[in-house]
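Sequence only, no structure available. Ideas?
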Amino acid sequence: MQANQKQQQEISDYAAVLIRCKARQLVGRAGFTWDDVEDLEQEMTLDLLSRLPKFDPEKAAHTTFVARIVERKISNLFRDRRREKRDYRREFGSLNDHIQDGEGETIERAYTIDQDDVDIRMGHRHRSREEEAHLRLDVSLVMSGLPEDLREIAEVLMKTTITEAAKSLGMPRSTLYGAVGRLRPFFENAGLGDYL
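Reply:
I predicted one. Tokens follow.
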């Protein structure tokens, strides 16, 4: 029993040394810095601990298992860092950096960002207020030129889903899809095909 406990202690020492070395090797790659080393060690350790119950000595040595888990976690860390929304290469400065505005004054970069841009990046809106105003105007022009039966359908579809619109209009969805097919050319001809 003591030999088994000693072997487990050696294995955990091996894992700790491996994780420490791998975390330091990541510095300078994928935007990781020396400030990230502790966080990287912690992430690799937690991942390893969560997977240790799956270790099967019949399939591989414990050190092999540990090495594979750590390597897989590193691959996942690289993949996550390169995802578009987290890509370290897109960061070009802090919002708290001081820059020159158009009038020669020094201000924080955060004050140069338009609220529409912030709302779009945060997912609160899909387009700027100006684009929305233009779109509303364009849609109202197309709506005014629609035949009466299609106008009613378009007005309902602007506020609900196809299923809800079919119930509201008292028609089968297949009939409604046919009407949508007749509506489409009106909007495409007005240059609004991308919004369909």
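The beta strands are 98-100, 106-108.
Hope that gets you unstuck.
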